[in-house]
Specification:
The structure holds 2 protein chains of 2 kinds. By secondary structure, chain A is an alpha+beta fold. In chain A, about 45% of the residues lie in helices and about 10% in strands. Chain A is globular. The two termini of chain A are about 30 Å apart. Classes of the chains: A alpha+beta, B alpha+beta.
Chain lengths: ~250, ~170
């Protein structure tokens, strides 16, 4: 959306376009020819592009939690400038996460298809179409499992459907200890604030990228054991619910 | 080492300007001081610490500097070069700890000038470990909190929680 990309992962994506993993001997010549003939991306035959793997090649692909904490802290401070209230601040954090979600979705599909089709010696990208979720439950499982593992290294802690008959379009994803909130303690007069609104923005971006119109918000639900437990409330729009009924009748999974 | 932190009485954090930014007691039954008294205590200690640092004795350097060259160029040079700290590689630290028969006060100063004052039982061992852990928690839950304003009083719920949990867990 309006906010410029500020996250490290997006940085890596934009870097990838400039420098594909493998270089040929006459780089300048081939590049000049390529730009005239086909301005597309060069795909190495073994599919070891920069998109297929983490930039960080170390064994567990670990990143410094401290530097992320400082970066995220600065993002919160940046969002806090000239805000009118807590909701405005959460909206800004949400907007910072939204474009990241849109792009992460592509990366997630790209990586999941590349690993599944790696047994076949595939060189073309269209070997198996990415399995974009069509139903709400599949989408939520994608967020709950693979997306959470990509971002935080573990699955989310719970996935629930609203029990109230008035709000069948509401789903809840629970994270007992959100990584973004590890070092953040909101001041007492802003106790409603939850900085995981950023993660809510990421979820919203993923849902929108799949064609599910959604509003996602983060809420504090502390328990004795998990003081920073956060519930992400996913509210699908009416068109999505109508389509869901049609798909259910048609038996699409 | 089960009783390592049983004797931790209280913690005070003083910012680099001598202001009290954090104060917490870990045991009941301590003599109560008013907030104002704590502020005075922090300011006084800050001054005493600065004095103890500046009265660190210097010893004369054994071989004097070549006098004819320096006297023509600079006036202050000979006076300053005549004395040095006993161990020039180690920075002057000032008051490190103060011990009475009822308590021991340990002072730990960070590189940026923040001071951690820990009041413990004189029999408590490995105070350095405790203070290092407190510094680590401070660096994590105070300095990485975007809502904390530097040099201002510490009001971070996560810091309180983790500090209490860690000290209780070691009791």
């Amino acid at each position: 959306m309006a906010a410029p990309p500020r996250h490290a992962t997006m940085q890596s994506i934009s870097n990838g376009g400039i420098a594909p993993g493998t270089d040929r001997p006459q780089t300048q010549q081939t590049q000049a020819q390529l730009s005239q003939q086909s301005p597309g991306l060069r795909v190495p035959s073994n599919r070891k592009t920069i998109y297929d793997r983490h930039l960080n090649r170390s064994r567990n692909a670990e990143l410094s939690r401290a530097s992320f904490a400082f970066l995220f802290g600065e993002m919160v401070t940046y969002a806090q400038r000239r805000v009118t209230g807590i909701q405005d601040l959460e909206k800004r954090l949400n907007e910072q996460g939204y474009p990241l979600g849109l792009r992460l979705l592509d990366l997630l599909f790209y990586r999941s298809t590349s690993t599944s089709s790696s047994a076949l010696s595939s060189s073309s990208t269209s070997s198996s179409p990415p399995n974009r979720p069509l139903r709400i439950i599949t989408l939520l499982h994608l967020i709950h499992g693979p997306l959470w593992r990509l971002l935080f290294g573990r699955a989310a802690d719970a996935l629930e459907h609203s029990v109230s008959p008035d709000t069948p379009n509401e789903y809840m994803i629970t994270d007992n200890d959100p990584m973004v909130n590890t070092y953040i303690s909101a001041p007492r007069d802003m106790s409603m604030l939850n900085c995981a609104a950023y993660v809510a923005g990421i979820i919203e971006g993923v849902c929108d990228g799949c064609g599910f119109e959604t509003k996602v918000s983060a809420h504090n639900q502390p328990t004795e054991l998990w003081p920073s437990r956060t519930v992400f409330l996913v509210r699908f729009g009416d068109p999505v619910m109508e389509r869901e009924k049609v798909l259910e009748r048609a038996g699409v999974k | 080492m089960p009783d390592n932190t049983r004797g931790v009485f209280s913690l005070i954090i003083i910012n680099k300007a001598g202001g009290l930014i954090y104060q917490r007691e870990f045991q009941s039954g301590l003599r109560n001081l008013s907030t104002n008294d704590y502020l005075v205590l922090a300011g006084t200690f800050h001054g005493v610490h600065a004095i103890t640092r500046s009265i660190t004795p210097k010893i004369p350097i054994s071989q004097p500097a070549p006098s004819p060259a320096t006297s023509s160029t600079g006036i202050t040079a000979p006076a300053a070069s005549g004395y040095s700290y006993p161990n020039p590689g180690v920075p002057v630290s000032g008051l490190d700890y103060l011990e009475t028969d009822k308590f021991r006060m340990t002072c730990f100063q960070t590189l940026t000038g923040t001071k951690f004052l820990l009041f413990t039982d004189p029999l408590t061992g490995s105070v350095d470990t405790i203070i290092q852990k407190i510094y680590e928690l401070y660096a994590d839950y105070v300095m990485k909190n975007p809502f904390y304003q530097i040099e201002m009083p510490v009001r971070c719920e996560a810091f309180d929680r983790h500090l209490g949990a860690w000290l209780r867990g070691r009791t």
